[in-house]
Specification:
alpha/beta; FAD/NAD(P)-binding domain; Enolase-like, domain 1; 3 domains; 5-stranded parallel sheet; 11 helices; 25% helix; binds flavin-adenine dinucleotide
Length: 430
C-alpha cells in the first residue's frame, strides 16, 4: 500500500477562487515544495462574480477576470493541470486518481471543488433555451443568447437571478422574474429591505412575480414553456434558472469524508480540516461553524472562499493564521452596490440609517440588525461601502450598541461608532 511522503506535492482539487487563493497563500506562507492544482475548467483561474454582471454585456471582460496575472502560476512554480478531473481520492493512502487514469500521491490535499448550479427536473443542463450560470462558458452562452432575444424569464429572485435581470434590463431586454417566495432574497435580508429592493426592481421595468410557483416546464420548438401553479402559461425563448447552487462533494463523499446531513457540504473545522487527516477543504463545497451566526452553515461567497483558502493553506503548513474576518458579501444590481457584513439570523431587529422612501437614482442607505442583547449582527449598506467598513470594529468587539443613535443622521457615523466602542467597558458583562 502506498503511503504519503512529506516530499509528495500538495494537491489542490479545483482551480477556482479557493484553489487559486490557497496556492498563492502556500507560496507566500513559505512553502517551497511542489503544488499541483487540478481544475476541470480550461481557463486559468478566474473570478465568478462578474459572470452575472459585466461579462453578460461585455465580451471584453472575458480576459479581465483572472484571479492572478497570466504568468503568475509559472513564476510561482504552481503546476496547473487544467481541463482535467480528479475522479477519486484515497484519503487513507493519500493518492488521487485523475480522469486520464494517472495517479498522484499527495502529502496534503485541499478540496476546493466549489458547487454547481441547480437545474430543474426535466430541464437538464444543455436544454436549448435554458441557461444555468456558474462558469465562464455558461456566461458566454447566456451572453450570446441575450444578444439574440428581446425578452427572457429568470427563475429565482436570489442574488444571481436579480443580477442577471438587472444586467438584462440595462441592455433593454424585457425581463420577467418568477420567485416562489413571497419576497426577494428571503434568506439574506429582512422583509423591509426586500420591500425596498422589490420597488427598485419593478421601477426598472422588471415584471417581478412573487409567490409564483412553476408547476411544469418543457422545451418547445421556440424555447421553454412554463406552466404556473395558478394555471397560467408563459412561453419564453430564453429561460435563466437561478434557483441556487449545490456543493460539489462527489469526491469527498466517495472517499468517506464527513458531510453535513442538512446542507450537504464537506464538514470542516475552524482550520479547514476535514474528517480525514491530510485532507482540507475550502470554499463553496464546505460546511463550517460560523461564530457570527452561532451555527454550522455553507457560505457561498467570494470572501469566504478567500478566507478559508488562506486559513487552509496555513493549516496545511502547520502555521497559525488569523481567524476568519467577519463575513462580508456584495452584489451589484439596479444601480446599487449592496454590501453586507455579519450574517442574518432569526429575531434580529433592523433599523434604517437614511430614508428608504426618498426617491434617488443613487440612494445611500445603511440598515443595522441587532440581536436581543443589542449587539450588531448584520449590516446592509446600499452605495455606502465606506460606511459599512466603519462598522467593522463593532462586529469585532461585539459590544451592545445604541442602534437608534447610530441610525440618527444628525450624528456622524464615525462619532456614533467611537461612542459605542468607548461605552464598551461599562456595557460588557464582567
Ligand atoms: C455567477 C456568480 C456570481 C457571483 N457573484 C458574487 C458576488 O457578487 N459576491 C460574492 O461575494 N460572491 C459571488 N459569487 C460567489 C463566489 O464566486 C463563489 O463563492 C466562489 O467562486 C467560490 O469559490 P470556490 O473556489 O469554492 O468554487 P469555484 O470558484 O466554483 O471553483 C471550483 C472549481 O473546482 C472545479 N472542480 C470541481 N470538482 C473538480 C474535480 N473533481 N476535479 C477538478 N476540478 C474540479 C470546478 O470545475 C471549478 O472550476 C458568485 C458566484 C457566481 C457563480
Amino acid at each position: 500500500m502506498a503511503t504519503m511522503a512529506e516530499s509528495d506535492p500538495i494537491l489542490i482539487v479545483g482551480a477556482g477562487q479557493a484553489g487559486a487563493t490557497a496556492a498563492a497563500a502556500l507560496r507566500s506562507g513559505g512553502f517551497a515544495g511542489r503544488i499541483v492544482m487540478v481544475g476541470r475548467e480550461a481557463p486559468l483561474p478566474y473570478e465568478r462574480p462578474p459572470l452575472s454582471k459585466a461579462v453578460l454585456s461585455d465580451a471584453a471582460m472575458d480576459d479581465r477576470i483572472g484571479i492572478h496575472p497570466a504568468g503568475f502560476h509559472g513564476e510561482q512554480s504552481i503546476e496547473l493541470r487544467l481541463g482535467a478531473d480528479v475522479v477519486a481520492i484515497d484519503a487513507k493512502t493519500s493518492v488521487a486518481r485523475l480522469d486520464d487514469g494517472s495517479t498522484l500521491p499527495f502529502s496534503r490535499c485541499l478540496l476546493a471543488t466549489g458547487g454547481h448550479a441547480r437545474a430543474l427536473p426535466g430541464l437538464p443542463a444543455g436544454t436549448p433555451g435554458m441557461h444555468l450560470i456558474r462558469t465562464l462558458a455558461d456566461a458566454q452562452g447566456l451572453r450570446e443568447a441575450m444578444a439574440r432575444h428581446g425578452s427572457m424569464v429568470v427563475l429565482g429572485a436570489g442574488f444571481l437571478g436579480l443580477e442577471v435581470a438587472s444586467t438584462a434590463r440595462a441592455m433593454g431586454i424585457g425581463v420577467t422574474v418568477l420567485e416562489s417566495a413571497p419576497r426577494v432574497l428571503p434568506r439574506a435580508v429582512p422583509p423591509a429591505f426586500s420591500d425596498w429592493l422589490q420597488q427598485r426592481v419593478r421601477d426598472a421595468g422588471v415584471d417581478l412575480r412573487l409567490d409564483t410557483r412553476c408547476g411544469s416546464v418543457a422545451p418547445v420548438p421556440d424555447g421553454i414553456a412554463l406552466g404556473l401553479e395558478d394555471g397560467s402559461r408563459i412561453q419564453t425563448p430564453l429561460l435563466v434558472v437561478a434557483i441556487g447552487q449545490s456543493p460539489e462533494v462527489a469526491l469527498a463523499r466517495d472517499s468517506g469524508l464527513a458531510l453535513h446531513p442538512g446542507n450537504g457540504g464537506i464538514r470542516i473545522d475552524a482550520q479547514c480540516r476535514t474528517s480525514a487527516p491530510n485532507v482540507f477543504a475550502a470554499g463553496d463545497c464546505t460546511s463550517q461553524h460560523q461564530p457570527h451566526a452561532g451555527l454550522e452553515m455553507r457560505l457561498e461567497s467570494w470572501q469566504s472562499a478567500n478566507e478559508q483558502a488562506r486559513i487552509a493553506a496555513a493549516a496545511m503548513l502547520g502555521i497559525d493564521a488569523a481567524p476568519a474576518a467577519t463575513p462580508w458579501f456584495w452584489t451589484d444590481q439596479f444601480g446599487c452596490n449592496v454590501q453586507m457584513m455579519g450574517l442574518p439570523a432569526e429575531g434580529l431587529a433592523y433599523r434604517w440609517r437614511g430614508d428608504p422612501a426618498a426617491a434617488a437614482a443613487m440612494p445611500k442607505l445603511l440598515m443595522l440588525g441587532t440581536n436581543a442583547d443589542g449587539r450588531l449582527r448584520h449590516a446592509i449598506a446600499v452605495n455606502a461601502g465606506g460606511d459599512l467598513r466603519q462598522l467593522r470594529p463593532l462586529f469585532d468587539a461585539a459590544v451592545p450598541i445604541d442602534a437608534a443613535r447610530l441610525c440618527d443622521l444628525s450624528v456622524p457615523l464615525r462619532q456614533g461608532v467611537r461612542d459605542a466602542l468607548a461605552a464598551k467597558p461599562a456595557l460588557l458583562p464582567i
